[in-house]
Write a structure and sequence with these properties.
163 residues, elongated, mainly alpha, 6 helices
Length: 163
């Protein structure tokens, strides 16, 4: 179980870093980050993106500490990530209509979204939309985080010292 926990910590921290890289790389270069647009319910895209990355990091740290609430943090990060992915996917499919109506060359949702964007060839070669494939893998990792974060109750025999 310790090896599974260690692998999950590395996987979640790696994914959080990969997710946050489009936000961090412009800051390291000295340029500003321009994430414009709103996701569903008027939530800014930047808040969803930063929130998902931070919640994934918190979940990895909580899992490393053995906290059983790591699964809650992971699934909150997953919800923010799923909303962001679906908003970007919806914006990408509606991008020609938005550009035609507004006269703008494109907005955030129509532009490249870093790790959130997938080439069109991937969906045609797999036969499944990569957004749903990635979300399915993230749910599977979330279930593994839940299993690894559960505390095992040890039955103690009366009179025996705890190890």
């Amino acid at each position: 179980m310790k090896i599974l926990r260690f692998v999950l910590i590395l996987a979640v921290m790696g994914y959080a870093g990969w997710l946050a890289w489009p936000l961090l790389s412009p800051l390291l270069d000295g340029t500003g980050v321009s994430l414009e647009g709103e996701g569903p319910f008027g939530i800014p895209v930047a808040a969803l993106w930063i929130g998902a990355a931070v919640l994934y990091l918190v979940a990895a740290l909580m899992l490393g500490a053995g906290n059983p609430r790591a699964a809650v943090a992971y699934f909150l990060g997953f919800v923010a990530d799923a909303v962001l992915r679906l908003a970007i996917d919806q914006g990408r499919s509606a991008a020609p209509d938005v550009a035609a109506r507004s006269g703008k060359p494109g907005d955030f949702q129509a532009q490249d979204a870093g790790p959130m964007s997938f080439p069109g060839e991937v969906s045609s070669s797999l036969g499944i939309d990569p957004t749903w494939l990635v979300l399915g893998v993230l749910v599977l990792i979330g279930v593994l985080v839940f299993v690894a974060s559960r505390r095992r109750r040890r039955v103690r025999i009366p009179g025996r010292l705890a190890a």
